[in-house]
């Protein structure tokens, strides 16, 4: 895999070559040599970079939705943004979170399996204090939640999962549901320790309190959606949706377009002098016979053949034939 150098590394490399500390020929020889990189099978990379970028876009939208939701619920300044999107073994994720934290275990049908929203205790208790009428400051010490506090938190984070479904709606229609709330990570075993999970970390600020919210999505749960997380799928889906919208708009405009519809009883050729001498009561003889069908034109094209008559006291025509190919008017 090609490594990308930062601008500082490029400047340092150029300076070393210019000063003679490093030889360009040695660099070429080193590049020609076979490079071996170690690979840890316990830390398998199951998500491609393309899929990680898609997960980032989805959860940046989720962060905006959570910001709006918690700002309305807590009635204070809330700022949530995506800090990082990583893939790591589930065991490593468990070791990285505090020994006492807020773990919201949930499912999202039609996906099979459990996912976790881990909320740093400072953030969770600040939310709780704000909901109970306090200033929303971080607690001095952490303790077990009472039954009432547990119910309040379950309701708050259960509603936050509705925004999770909203963020994923362009990929799949989900129905997330909070199963239970846990505080000890050791009691939460949703997948095997070596299973790869995607961890989306949200940097969260509520008033003056800061902390992290981590979303743990196991690869085994997202596996049915892996194809949909590619950029190619997103671009083709967006193009298809755009084409459908354009088609609907065009069809709607065509339906509203007005066309002249003319039922022609017949034609006749007269001289200019006869035309100038026409008076009331004069009869003009048409070239068409009474038993012939009259032509119905749309614009300049003959589209139908019809019979003249009346309907509810008004002059009307009854369509009897639809011409498969439009007939050009001879005139």
Automatic annotation (TrEMBL):
One of its GO terms (biological process) is bacterial-type flagellum-dependent swarming motility. Pfam families: FliM (PF02154), FliMN_C (PF01052). It is a peripheral membrane protein. Keywords: Bacterial flagellum, Cell membrane, Cell projection, Chemotaxis, Cilium, Flagellar rotation, Flagellum, Membrane. One of its GO terms (molecular function) is cytoskeletal motor activity. Its main location: other. The keyword DNA-binding does not apply. NCBIfam families: fliM_switch. This is Flagellar motor switch protein FliM. It is found in: Bacterial flagellum basal body; Cell membrane. InterPro entries: CheC-like_sf, Flag_FliM, FliN-like_C, SpoA-like_sf. It comes from the Bacteria. The gene is fliM.
């Amino acid at each position: 895999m090609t490594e990308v150098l930062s601008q500082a590394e490029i400047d340092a490399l150029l300076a070393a070559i210019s000063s003679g500390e490093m030889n360009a020929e040695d660099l070429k020889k080193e590049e020609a040599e076979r490079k071996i990189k170690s690979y840890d099978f316990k830390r398998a990379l199951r998500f491609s970079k393309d899929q990680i970028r898609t997960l980032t876009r989805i959860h940046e939208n989720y962060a905006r939705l959570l910001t709006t939701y918690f700002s309305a619920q807590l009635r204070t300044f809330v700022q949530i943004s995506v800090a990082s999107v990583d893939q790591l073994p589930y065991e490593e994720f468990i070791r990285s979170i505090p020994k006492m934290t807020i773990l919201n275990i949930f499912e999202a049908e039609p996906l099979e399996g459990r996912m976790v929203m881990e909320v740093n205790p400072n953030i969770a208790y600040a939310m709780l204090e704000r909901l109970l009428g306090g200033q929303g400051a971080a607690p001095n010490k952490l303790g077990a939640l009472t039954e009432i506090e547990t119910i309040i938190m379950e309701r708050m984070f259960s509603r936050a999962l509705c925004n999770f479904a909203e963020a994923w709606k362009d990929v799949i229609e989900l129905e997330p549901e909070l199963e239970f709330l846990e505080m000890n990570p050791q009691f939460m075993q949703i997948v095997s320790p070596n299973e790869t999970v995607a961890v989306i970390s949200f940097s969260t600020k509520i008033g003056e309190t800061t902390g992290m919210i981590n979303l743990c999505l196991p690869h085994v749960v997202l596996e049915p959606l892996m194809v949909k997380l590619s950029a190619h799928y997103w671009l083709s889906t967006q193009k298809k949706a755009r084409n459908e919208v354009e088609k609907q708009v065009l069809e709607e405009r065509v339906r509203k377009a007005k066309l002249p519809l003319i039922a022609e009883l017949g034609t006749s050729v007269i001289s200019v002098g006869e035309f100038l001498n026409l008076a009331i009561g004069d009869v003009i003889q048409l070239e068409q016979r009474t038993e012939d069908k009259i032509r119905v034109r749309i614009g300049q094209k003959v589209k139908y053949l019809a019979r003249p008559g009346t309907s509810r006291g008004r002059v009307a025509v009854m369509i009897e034939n639809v011409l498969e190919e439009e007939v050009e008017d001879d005139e």
